[in-house]
Design goal:
Radius of gyration: 29 Å
Strand content: 15-25%
Oligomer: single chain
Largest sheet: 5 strands, mixed
Number of strands: 20
Helix content: 40-55%
Shape: elongated
Strand order of the largest sheet: 2-1-3-5-4
Length: 682
């Protein structure tokens, strides 16, 4: 053993090191005690010690359902969902729920579990720093202990505590060259968070570059577990992605050019913020510039094989994580909670960078600056934690009051905050955002949810809960019935919640053709097919496509409240600026009467290149001139007189029998128009 290795071994395992380790854990326990005191003082005594984040309650509910024999079923009868973004963390909580399932005991077990993760992460940063550079022996642990953002993220009691622990343990295994343990940890990472993919790729890439076969095997094992998770997700829900990820990201909500531009800009912001602590509250993460300089020194100037391995893995994974978060548009959310798993490696690199400063007084001075600044900003994160606990406690109080005030069999619908289900045990909760309610998963626009509620009455909640910011949504405006409960919160004001009895009368109207003149035209004919535009089931079944603007624009669905045939109702449609087409089930060689529900003027949401949103009004010229093609051949053309104001127009077009050649022809309608419904009669 070389002298340098002997010194490192002594630093990592000698009596002084053990004393330092125990002192580190004692100080970490003090930090945990501070956060526990905050939760006990700001939370509810008849529930968990205090849920610091809305997702905390969501995980607790998943755990309670699993312990009750309904794994992945968030609320009774909701169906299987993967809205937790983690398979492993709910299982750990479910074990706690099996031991004692009441809310208070489960909340305490959840806090203890995450406190252990926090202490192990702090110890892991210390171990990495000690192993890489002897002079970094104390700095790693001290920097980890004084980091407010690390404590805030890990003691937030979400899956991030578990995942950050697994990542830190992987870095410890890498620095001690324990490839077998690293492989096991990579497998656990895949089942803990979707970012496990980044770790498997990072380890594989570094292993190839360093010609380390054992670590390459570990990386491949991690990637195999990622594939297993994707397969398991597909078995559960029909999609390899977690349902909580289906609606997220710039590439879902923006045109491709805009998504690329926004992702590039956000990536640059994240890199600058990570290194220099600037933007989205990052100025309180650590001392700007100095921390970045120290950490970059540790990343690029450390010469030991162990250091190069661990920081190479961390660097590749960090680059992937920053790209992923940039494309997702999540930067700054809860102080970059989704990037918290990178912080242990960053702090360890900063500690190693400090050790490279040869002048002892300069090293101590710079280290004191870093630790001092983190200690000064630490109370900020404690305060943020307290505010989160207080806010969630108010939500819980509202949910319990609602649960006690409505009949036991009533279901509750929420646009957000699905964790409220934890405070209403046994009651069916419908999450119209879709994360935990499978029927609404993956719907990028509330209009699509309205169509589901119109066409599938079994999905409708009896009561609707919404916040002040959500009361302007189309869904709330059109189904808002008598008020049941309202809570105006003095602090913070934006968390006011309201519960109303859902009134579905506007969504129940408009079934079938309403116009008397059109009904007379189709009298004696049989309805052979129909397409409800905006209703994904119909659109997918008929392979509907539409051509609108080209370039960096995206046109959203139209939600319109109007009348037809004397009945008022709400319908969802789309604007087609060039044409639309779909397949229809028809009888060949028989005349077709094609009926369109449209309108003279509609307002549609438009998303521009970089995410700018506008509601744009479209006024169509009457008569509306449309051409109908069947399998690419012009079959007929029609001039439809449009009814003005808030009136739907239903127009009939005749397709001659000779134009219908097959059982499932393509029907294409050419011309600028809005379409809400299509009916085909023969």
């Amino acid at each position: 053993m070389s002298a340098q290795q002997s010194r490192r071994s002594s630093a990592a395992g000698g009596p002084r090191a053990r004393e330092a380790f125990l002192l580190l854990l004692s100080a970490g326990t003090l930090v945990v005690s501070i956060f526990l005191a905050v939760e006990m003082s700001c939370g509810e005594m008849n529930g968990p010690p205090g849920a610091p984040q809305p997702d905390t309650l969501m995980f607790l509910e998943y755990a309670r359902a699993a312990a009750g024999g309904h794994a992945y079923e968030f609320t009774p009868g909701a169906g299987v969902s993967t809205g937790s973004s983690s398979h492993l963390y709910p299982v750990l909580l479910a074990v706690c729920a099996l031991l004692h399932g009441d809310a208070l005991a489960l909340g305490i077990a959840d806090f203890i579990l995450n406190a252990v993760f926090y202490l192990l992460v702090v110890a892991g940063v210390w171990l990495i720093a000690v192993r890489v550079e002897r002079a970094a022996a104390g700095w790693g642990g001290i920097l980890a202990l004084s980091s407010g953002v690390l404590a805030y993220a890990l003691l937030g009691r979400t899956d991030m505590g578990l995942f950050t622990f697994v990542v830190t343990a992987l870095l410890v295994a890498a620095v001690w060259d324990r490839a077998f343990a690293g492989g096991i940890l990579l497998g656990l990472a895949a089942w803990s968070r979707p970012e496990g993919l980044l770790l498997g790729l990072a380890v594989s890439i570094v292993a190839v570059l360093r010609h380390e076969r054992r670590w390459l095997a570990a990386g491949i094992f991690g990637l195999l577990n990622v594939a297993a998770v994707a397969g398991w997700n597909r078995v559960l829900t029909g999609t390899p992605l977690f349902q909580s990820l289906l609606r997220k990201g710039y590439f879902v909500h923006l045109p491709v050019s805009g998504a690329l531009a926004a992702s590039t800009v956000d990536f640059a912001r994240l890199v600058v913020g990570m290194i220099f602590g600037l933007g989205s509250g990052r100025e309180v993460y650590a001392l700007p510039l100095v921390t970045g300089a120290a950490a970059l020194g540790g990343l690029f100037l450390v010469r030991s094989a162990a250091g190069r391995r661990v920081f190479s893995i961390w660097g590749v994974a960090a680059a992937g994580a920053l790209l992923l978060n940039a494309a997702g548009g999540w930067q700054g959310y809860q102080f970059d909670r989704h990037l918290a798993w990178l912080w242990p490696g960053w702090l360890a690199a900063a500690a190693c960078g400090l050790s490279l400063v040869h002048d002892r007084r300069l090293r101590m001075g710079v280290g004191a600056m870093l630790v001092g600044y983190q200690l000064v900003t630490f109370p900020f994160f404690v305060a943020e934690h307290a505010e989160g606990v207080y806010s969630t406690a108010l939500h819980c109080r509202f949910a319990r009051a609602l649960d006690a005030g409505i009949p036991q069999g009533d279901s509750v619908g929420v646009l957000n905050y699905p964790g409220l289900a934890f405070c209403m045990p046994g009651r069916r909760l419908v999450h119209l955002g879709g994360y935990v309610s499978p029927r609404f998963a993956g719907r990028a626009d509330v209009a699509c949810n309205i169509e589901i509620l119109r066409r599938e009455p079994a999905t409708r909640p009896d009561v609707l809960v919404f916040s002040r910011s959500e009361e302007v949504s189309a869904l709330v405006r059109f189904v808002r019935g008598p008020e049941i409960l309202r809570e105006r919160l003095v602090f913070p004001e934006g968390l006011r919640l309201e519960a109303v009895r859902a009134d579905w009368s506007l969504l129940d109207g408009g079934r079938g053709v309403q116009d008397p003149e059109v009904l007379q035209i189709v009298s004696g004919r049989r309805l052979v097919d129909g397409i409800d535009i905006g209703y994904r089931k119909d659109e997918q079944r008929h392979e509907c496509t539409g051509q609108g603007w080209s370039g960096p624009l995206r046109l959203g669905p139209v939600v319109m409240r109007g009348r037809s045939g004397g009945e008022e109702f709400v319908d969802v449609g789309r604007v087609f600026l060039t044409s639309e087409r779909f397949r229809a089930a028809l009888v060949p060689e028989r005349e077709v009467v094609l009926v369109l529900r449209t309108a003279a003027a509609v307002t549609a949401p438009v998303v521009y290149h970089r995410g700018l949103r506008r509601n744009l009004r479209f006024d169509f010229v009457s008569p509306l001139h449309l051409e109908v093609l069947v399998d690419g051949v012009k079959a007929t053309e029609c001039d439809c007189s449009l009814k003005e104001g808030s009136l739907f127009t239903e127009a009939a077009m005749r397709i001659p029998a000779r134009a219908v050649k097959g059982n499932h022809p393509w029907i294409e309608i050419v011309g600028q128009h809005a379409a809400f419904e299509w009916w085909l009669y023969q």
